[in-house]
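Incident log, entry 3
Record: MarR family transcriptional regulator (136 residues)
Problem: checksum mismatch between cached and fresh output.
Input:
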Amino acid sequence: MDSLDEDEVRDDWTVAGNRSSRDISMMQVAREMLTARRRRSDYLPADFFGEPAWDMLLDLYIAHHEGKLISVSSACIASGGSATTALRWLARLETLQWVTRISDDNDRRRIYVRITDLAEQAISSWIAHLIGLRGD
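Fresh output:
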């Protein structure tokens, strides 16, 4: 498990003032995807769908580009599934090196999770592909 202090988060290249318009467009697409996924259950039975890992990754991708840290419990909520299922998926994503857990230097009881560079690059490539399909 990594350790991260608040200064590292503030110095992250993704802080709003340093983002390019392409980064913002990619974040907009990621947000639209996450919003659309969450709204599906307004129209269709929620049990038709079940991709907690993807929902967590999208949420973590957005948080990464906003320079925010996401707690493990918040990531579990973002999954849209049960806490047990979400924790199982977080463990699998960590094993696959798609997420990493980070201890809070100020409160050792709190653990954060963030996407790795591998995951960020893969999701960015997927979103860039979608933008190309949309013609943005």
